[in-house]
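Justification of computing resources. Each target in the renewal requires a structure prediction run like the one illustrated here; the chain below, 271 residues long, is used simply to show the kind of job we budget for.
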Amino acid sequence: MEILHYTFMQNALIAGILVSLVAGIIGSLIVVNRLVFLTGGVAHSSYGGIGMAIYFGLPIFLGASLFTVAVALLLAWLTFKKRHLSDTYIGLIWAVGMAIGVIFVDLTPGYNTDLMSYLFGSILAVQHSDLWFMGALLAMVLFTVHHWYRELLAISYDSDYAALRGIPTGRFYTLLLILSALTVVVAIKVVGLILVLALMTIPTHIASHRSSTLYGMMMLSALFAAFFTLAGLWLSYRYDLTSGACIILAAAAGLVLESLWRWLRSRQIRN
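Resulting structure tokens:
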């Protein structure tokens, strides 16, 4: 309990919980809508926004948010009616986004800060202003899911039928990508852009075997993500390791244990 006496650990715990809740909810939506690879493209292209924010002297969250939302809008426009070409577009934007970030960092005079924190996370460096951004995003996600749950449910499991019912599937497809982009931005502080997909998909995969509804999957996924984040933070503090990597390894260990339990359970039922 002594770690709670430090302000940076208090900020880290709050940030971990906020980001985990957002990642669990949005992660469930991107998994059932098969948008994981698209979100991966957005995540890696966000490095372009980080580089531009550093070059122009903007807050990292602001620069990365504007850039990733622009990328999400572009990908939504390119892939909504051309899903068969999505791999090509994602690969292109993925590479170009990271290249833009590298070039802008190179052009920044006198900049010598270690960029590994953006790749693998630096949750212990979270500031109070970051917490406000994370809290605002969580509120936005909760409002979106509560207000348009039926529409999100419809497009997640049968988008063609949803379109016939008059639901604007294109708008909700774009909305999902925008929320995914903003989730990536806040998760960069926790696990980094390299590991962000794991935080958004591993808890969801576990939750999918524990719930038969989208709502239940989102809630369980958020709880699992929060648990793995707290466990990873404890491991990071206890053994002086990188926090982002510890969080993902804790989630991976949870996935292995859950898979083993299901295998033993199914074997017991067969016997």
